[in-house]
């Protein structure tokens, strides 16, 4: 039976502001919408109490959007992205690639300790100056191969019984626009209990010509039919809508971005995480029959989160 979740992190904002530091706020929210739990991102040390293990059904692993040049020791690009050593350490926690890998191992160990049945990992890379134009210097295959090598370096820290799901973005890497590229990723990764987390909002960001929810749903359904080798390997869905194409097209005419801070701001504007309101979204879920469905939003308060969950579940015919 499909598990229905929301996304959550253990940042101070999510736990102390959004949930007001009260476990019952999370419990009541999940109960009100008949949800099974959360997909957790451990961005800080976890005390094992808040949120409790009973709520954690998935873990979104840590992610660094401009990681490839650090992994490949490309000093030229690193100096363009990070103006000094302190900036590099601020992003990766270290200036040593081996120590950075150890930080990721620790993230995996916490994920394993949470008891979550699946982990999610982004397979993508961007450099700030590439975002507006969408002219990415690294090919999808190059990023996929590097990400597979990265994951293979820590395979022993991924319990064999946990499902490892690779998530699509609209940058270079795994886009789920190409069946062969997706199949290649699963071929290269040593952890065989692997598949995909299909992020609908990220997928829509790849098509800035889309203007309406109906167009977005039709686009997704058509694209899924082309994933003949890998569609059955989509075990989870991050469900949210992004109709920011007009803004994205305008940004293509602007000067390139220079910093990661600018990149984050731009990305949040593009990837808006709005709820679907069109009941045709039900066709996506019927097509994929996922094991896990995550209502993925970025709310400013608990009332907004509650409202967005209701709107999207209403479109799905569940409220």
From TrEMBL:
<dbReference type="Pfam" id="PF01261">
    <property type="entry name" value="AP_endonuc_2"/>
</dbReference>
<keyword id="KW-0413">Isomerase</keyword>
<feature type="domain" description="Xylose isomerase-like TIM barrel">
    <location>
        <begin position="32"/>
        <end position="240"/>
    </location>
</feature>
<dbReference type="GO" id="GO:0016853">
    <property type="term" value="F:isomerase activity"/>
</dbReference>
<dbReference type="InterPro" id="IPR013022">
    <property type="entry name" value="Xyl_isomerase-like_TIM-brl"/>
</dbReference>
<protein>
    <submittedName>
        <fullName>Xylose isomerase-like TIM barrel</fullName>
    </submittedName>
</protein>
<dbReference type="InterPro" id="IPR036237">
    <property type="entry name" value="Xyl_isomerase-like_sf"/>
</dbReference>
């Amino acid at each position: 039976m499909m598990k229905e979740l929301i996304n959550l992190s253990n940042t101070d904002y999510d736990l102390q502001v959004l949930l007001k530091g009260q476990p019952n706020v999370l419990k009541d929210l999940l109960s009100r919408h008949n949800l099974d739990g959360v997909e957790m991102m451990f961005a800080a040390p976890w005390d094992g109490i808040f949120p409790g293990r009973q709520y954690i059904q998935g873990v979104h692993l840590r992610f660094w959007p401009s990681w490839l040049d650090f992994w490949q020791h490309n000093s030229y690009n690193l100096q363009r992205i990070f103006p000094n050593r302190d900036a590099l350490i601020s992003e990766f926690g270290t200036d040593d690639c081996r120590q950075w890998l150890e930080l990721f191992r620790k993230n995996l160990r916490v994920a394993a300790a949470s008891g979550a049945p699946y982990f999610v990992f982004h397979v993508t890379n961007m450099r700030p100056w590439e975002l507006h134009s969408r002219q990415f210097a690294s090919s999808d295959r190059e990023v996929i191969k590097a990400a597979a090598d990265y994951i293979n370096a820590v395979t022993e820290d991924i319990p064999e019984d946990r499902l490892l799901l690779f998530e699509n973005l609209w940058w270079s890497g795994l886009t789920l626009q190409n069946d062969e590229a997706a199949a290649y990723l699963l071929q290269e990764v040593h952890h065989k209990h692997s598949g995909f987390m299909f992020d609908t909002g990220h997928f829509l960001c790849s098509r800035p010509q889309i203007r309406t929810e109906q167009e977005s749903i039709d686009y997704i359904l058509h694209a899924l039919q082309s994933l003949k080798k890998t569609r059955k390997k989509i075990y989870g869905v991050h469900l949210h809508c992004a109709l920011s194409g007009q803004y994205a097209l305008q940004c293509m005419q602007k000067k390139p971005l220079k910093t990661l801070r600018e990149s984050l701001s731009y990305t949040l504007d593009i990837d808006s995480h709005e709820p679907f309101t069109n009941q045709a979204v039900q066709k996506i879920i019927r097509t994929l029959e996922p094991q896990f469905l995550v209502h993925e939003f970025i709310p400013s308060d608990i009332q907004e989160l509650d409202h967005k969950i209701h709107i999207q579940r209403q479109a799905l015919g569940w409220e």
